[in-house]
Write a structure and sequence with these properties.
8 helices, globular, Alpha-Beta Plaits, five-stranded mixed β-sheet
Length: about 220
């Protein structure tokens, strides 16, 4: 299939806040930003090789074992930092230096360099979450992610509310009771929001990336 050394690959995430210099209360935002990083490190501790760390100004980075929690992390960041927009680059590949398990600073390797390339690309054009894998050409992942973002952007506020509740409880009748609507209305809203198509597309991206990432040991 390929000649990649599957045992030595990690997933690097580098993110940046769009137009962060326009933020008025910088001190308050920085406190919030560091709190979000701390919450990520606590909530996703089992997924993390090197923790989410604020690096350059309003940038952050981390190293993960696998891609399993990637979209959950992505949603968490958007929810916690709203209305600020993010761009995120994801690189899968080797680490050439010693892994820093206390802070994601001082490391280097293809996975971090690829993540850096993708975040710079995300600043220029969609999608805002972009992927690259060492030794492979994977433009299809970024095309798929662009379609995902377009589908999500078309959701109405009510659809977003229903999707958020359903994602937590995974049961349409429970959503209906909580929101005071019919189960049929929940089902129709999920369909109109392309919820299941988006979930399947994200799962396909995760499955693809996990082929090349070091398993948790």
């Amino acid at each position: 299939m390929n000649t990649l050394q599957l045992h030595s690959y990690y997933l690097a995430i580098i993110g940046d806040i769009v137009r962060s210099r326009e933020i008025e209360n910088r001190k308050a935002f920085q406190r919030q930003f560091h709190r979000v990083m701390a919450e990520l490190n606590q909530q996703f501790q089992s997924e993390i090789v090197s923790p989410f760390t604020v690096t350059l100004g309003d940038e952050f980075q981390a190293l993960l074992h696998r891609a399993d929690a990637l979209f959950e992390i992505y949603r968490f960041l958007h929810q916690q930092l709203h209305p600020r927009q993010l761009v995120i680059g994801v690189g899968v590949g080797e680490i050439e230096t010693e892994i820093n398990r206390e802070s994601s600073i001082g490391m280097d390797g293809p996975c971090l360099r690829l993540a850096r390339e993708e975040i710079e690309a995300a600043k220029r054009q969609p999608p805002r979450l972009r992927f690259n894998v060492q030794g492979l050409e994977v433009p299809v992942l970024n095309v798929l992610m662009q379609h995902i973002e377009r589908l999500e952007a078309k959701r109405t506020p009510r659809q977003r509310e229903i999707v958020a509740v359903y994602r937590n409880v995974r049961h349409q009748e429970t959503v209906a009771r909580q929101l005071g609507i019919s189960q049929a209305a929940v089902s129709q809203a999920l369909e109109n929001a392309h919820y299941f198509l988006v979930e399947e597309s994200q799962a396909a991206i995760v499955q693809f990336l996990n082929q090349f990432i070091k398993p948790i040991v």
